[in-house]
Amino acid sequence: MPVPSLLAVFAHPDDESLWSGGVLARHAAAGARTAVVTSTWAADTQRGAELTEALRLLGTDEPRMLGYADARAPQSAPGRLRFCDAPLDETVGRVVAHLRQFRPEIVVTHDAYGGVTGHPDHVHTHRVTTLAVQAAGLERLFPDAGDPWQPSALYLATHPHSAVGALSDLARAGKAMNSVPDERITATVDVSPWLEQKWAAVLAHRTEVDRGAAPGLLAGFPADARERILSTEWYIRHDTVSPVTAQTELTA
Q1: Rounded distance, CA 144 to CA 183, Å?
Q2: 112-127: pLDDT as tens digits
Q3: Residues 6+ apart with CB under 8 A from 85
C-alpha cells in the first residue's frame, strides 16, 4: 500500500526537524512525497540556507517559505510584516495555495498550544494551517489559489503529560513545557531508526545551535537524554474526510 504524501507546516526553520523530523524522514524513505512550508524567515537569510540543508538531510522537497518576519526577530525578514500581524486571509490563502499545489494526503503542524514552547508564531501557524486545511477543499474559497484539494487528515505535533519526564532536561534549561492529556494522543511514532538522520537535520540549523536555542541545548545534553527527547513523536489526529482510509495514517 502506498505511503501517504505529507506536507508539514511549521513556524520557524528548525521546528520541522525538532518536532516532526522523524516522521518526515520515515515517509520520505518509504517513497512518499514530503515537503515543508515554513511561516517565517526569508529564503535569502542564513536560516533559510540552513533549512535547505536540513530538508535535504530529511529527504523532503525544496523549502516552501512564506517569508514573514519572526515575532521576536525582525531581522528574519527585513521590510516584511511579522507573521502574527499579517492579514489572516492573506496567510491562509498562501497556505491553501501550497496545499492545492502539493496535494498532500496528510498535513502536519503545531498543536493548539504551539508545542512545548508556546511561541506565538507556533500558535498562529496552528490557527492558519487549521483554517487552510478546511478551506483548501472548498472551490469558492481562494479560487485563485488553484483547484480544490482536501487533505484526508491533519496531525498536530504535540507532547503528552507522560513525556514531561523525558523533557525534564529542557524544563531545567528554562523552556516552557506545554503538554496534553495522554488520552488526547492518537498517534505515537517510534522514530528511533531515523534518529541519526533527524539529529543531523537539527544540527544543520547552526544558527540555533550557536545561540543556545533548543538545538543548542540538545547538543549539550548527554546522548541518552537527547535520545529520550527525540526518538518518539506524538500527534493528535483530526480527520477531514469520511470515510477515513488506512492510507491516511502516519507510518508507524
Answers
A1: 40
A2: 999 988 999 999 999 9
A3: none
By C-alpha distance, which of 235, 224, 252, 236 is closest to 166? 224
Check if the beta carbon of residue 223 is closer than 8 Å to that of residue 192.
Answer: no
Output the nine-digit C-alpha cell for 242.
469520511
No. of helices (H) and no. of strands (E), the chain: 9, 7
Predicted TM-score (pTM) of the model is: 0.94
Sheet holding 232-239, edge to edge: 64-68, 34-40, 6-10, 106-110, 153-158, 232-239, 187-190
- Which run of H or of E encompasses 188? strand 187-190
According to DSSP, the residues that pair with 36 across neighbouring strands are 8
Which is it for strands 64-68 and 187-190: parallel, antiparallel or unpaired?
unpaired
Instruction: Identify whether the C-beta of residue 40 lies closer than 8 Å to the C-beta of residue 9.
Output: no
The three cell numbers of residue 52 are 535547505
**Secondary structure, 3-state, 22-37:** HHHHHHHHCCCCEEEE
Residue-wise pLDDT for 165-218, tens only, equals 767 666 555 566 799 999 999 999 999 999 999 999 999 999 999 999 999 999
Question: Do β-strands 153-158 and 232-239 pair in parallel, antiparallel, or remain unpaired?
Answer: antiparallel
**Torsion over CA: 236, 179, 209, 194 (sign):** negative
CB-neighbour burial class of residue 247 (10 A; exposed 0-12, middle 13-18, buried 19+): middle
Q: If you search the block for the grid coordinates 529564503, which residue do you land on?
A: 43
